Amino acid sequence: MPQPALLEKHGDVATIVLNRPEHANAIDPDSTRALIQCIDAVAAEPSARVVVLRATGRMFCAGGSIDFFAKGGADFPAVLDELLGPLHAALHKLATLPVPVISAVNGPVVGGGIGLALCADIALAAESMKLRGGYSAIGLTPDACSSWFLTRRVGPMRAKQIFFTNDSLSAQQCLAMGIVSEVVPDAELAARTTALAEALARGATGALGRIKQLVDGAHERSLEAQLDLEHRLMVESAASAEAREGIAAFLSKRVPRFS
Fold first, then answer.
1. Using CA atoms in the order 40, 46, 49, 53, what is the torsion angle rounded to 10 degrees?
2. CB of 106 closer than 8 Å to CB of 55
3. 180, 237, 255, 258: which sits with the fewest CB atoms below 10 Å from its CB?
4. Whole-number mean pLDDT of the chain?
């Protein structure tokens, strides 16, 4: 039986693969445990300079498994309670890694799959990608970071409309709203993802991590606090080997070799 989530490593790029295409990569206990293991392994891997999250099949993720929900019966709330704690902790770990995270959204994404797709720093989408809330249609509420990440991208009013109405949004609509970073033809998604991941892996990883820290928390800080953090991180960056190499490469008119 194939693993519902896989971890692949190619050079400096670690890739987490949702691998239940026959079940639309839906989230259930088995896939959750496999995903958590992959995220824990990535977080413990010091050589990973970029992380990619992608899926096999024609759908990125259908959200929570309705079969799993139905089988829960009277124990469903307790089983879900036990499942969500570790899953949410793992997604927080993935979203806050000090390296760039890219999601390659190859097709429709629903419910909890939204959180998986949008926990990335950069979300690339195939033209066949569609997004649908789905939760309220079965009497449930968002999980897996989906409400947090979607609200940050589109604002409270549009996020509520998406989750209230469960209308499907096309890839181009998602691009216009800022939900995804870029839309490419389906046949080009893998190559575009690889090219971006490899380019970022050649970058100044320490600086990218500090940029991520600045941007991710900017909306929660006052201007004064943001300026203080910019000050501190700029001084830290200036003391790094990356800065010395970057400046030397610029002056020598060569490509920097960050390590």
1. -10
2. yes
3. 255
4. 96
